[in-house]
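Dear colleague,

Following up on yesterday's call, I've attached the two folding results inline so they're easy to grep. Please treat them as preliminary; we haven't cross-checked anything against experimental data yet. The first protein's sequence and structure tokens come first.
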Amino acid sequence: MRFASIGSGSSGNGTLIKGAGACLLVDCGFSLKETRKRLARLGLDAEDLSGLLVTHGHRDHISGVGVLARAYDLPVWMTVGTQKECQQANIGRLSDVQLFYSNEAFAIDGLEIESFPVPHDAREPSQFVFSDDSFRVGLLTDTGSSTKHIERVLSGCDALLLECNHDMDLLMAGDYPLALKQRVSSQYGHLDNITAGQILSKIDCSKLQHLVAMHLSQKNNRPELARDALSVAMECEQQWIKVADQDAGLAWCELKLKKG
């Protein structure tokens, strides 16, 4: 099982999950041309995709969903709330929409997917844990806070892609309007570095082979600040923690069975 990112941040998102018989793109916030270019950088063509899975209906996650799905006749999985947001955002006709509830488990081409609701200012947003016979990969971005349910679901993952959107000091000292600062830092906004670290301290991280800081703000965060907060929680070297970049994304990370 392996995963990668074609880009992560407020200007566009896309996460690749490959396992069992599936190759899924979670969200697509890029133009068709840009998505093709970013997939090619990871050795993929859009024709290799099994489908699209959408976390929620904000533009940086859905702007490229419609055009990609139509160009390659891809099925799209989303909640009813996200479907309504996509319709309001005018992403165009989707001919094959597979609906699920935000606390539902389902499978795509043998890859098991456990969805769970998150506190975010969208309609029925979801995040996911992906699993095959050997590994579990957790994805948690675009949430303003944690819940006991989130922490139970993410415990025991072999890899975790965890939002570290902002450093609180940088956010508050920056030039965002007060209303936007309040929205970003609210319990329905985005995780700051310290809160992300606190989540790690509450879950079972004993199996983690990969930890990735996701959805960093280019204005209100720095990779070294995210790494510092997560490394304190993990009691590990900062360089062990990976960071998904807005432009460069994240190269393929593979999960391996431990010998012995």
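Below is the second protein, in the same order (sequence, then structure):
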Amino acid sequence: IFEGSRRGQKIVANIYSSPSTKTTSETKRLTVLLGHANGFHKEIWEPTLERLFSYQNSEWSIERAVALDGYNHGDSAIANRAMISAENYAPWFMHARDILSVTRQLEQQYGKTQKMVGIGHSWGAVSLLLSENISPLTFDSLIITDPVLHTKAAWHRDYVEKTMRRRWQWKNIDEAKAYFEPHPFFRMWDPRILDLFIHQGLEHTEEGLVLKCRPSNEAAVYAGAAYTSPFATRNLWRVQCPTAFLTGEKSQLSPREHIEKITAGMRDCTHAVMEGVGHLLVQEDPDRTGDQYAGLLDHLVPRMMGDQDARVFDPLVPGMDADPKTATSMQL
């Protein structure tokens, strides 16, 4: 449990490592910090992390992966319930400041012997960009997964209203499964992700099972996008560390043309598109998401070490342009 950016606030995290990692004195050791999408929780990353750990090699090794629960999500929401119970507006800067608070505590605890890589999805991705904007070069590189980067302020009233109408209470786990498993929205997910969402995203109370992230808190995050998402978009050029964007081919939030346009002014940026998935690529295909992260780390690690001529091509991910000067978009 980490201290949040506000007094009395807690940020709960899981820390993962791989006992089978084989390294040499030349291996670049990484600390990976992961931020989930709105409405989810830290355990959602486990299938992707398992896949990513299997790719470690003599070039890079993940010393630890730190998956956070946003302050009003998952176990952090339980710890902060008194602070968030009346929340109706959650600017994304708050999550960004919490991320910075956690990175400082990680450095105090472990020292700065590893490179810090941020991997975020949707809300978590934009929050990483905002944290890098607030405190440049906190991260040595970023992998930004299907971010919500608007160019104009928008209140997303439909998202807020739809979320507030969502069911969030069940009598027991069987009733919860009977609701989630046949639902068209959740049926698109990898079964492991849905199982983690049901077993780790629900809280036992006297009334039964309830979502740890209450609809009011999820809706507050949607409302909080109004100004902070456009701010992040306008200030992408300020991000100084090597950055890779991974988006879903079918994503309506991060279409290829939009990402290429808004990232044109970034100093060191790669964009990869994952075929056959939408905005929730982490939920739909966690294994292939892990594959893409591994390929992107093969590209990013040399660049974060100062090799600006590092090749973009990765044999695991055919279709990448070998020339980083022309590799603004790649089909994975």
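For the second protein, one point worth flagging: Confidence is low (pLDDT under 50) at residues 309-332.

Best wishes,
A.L.
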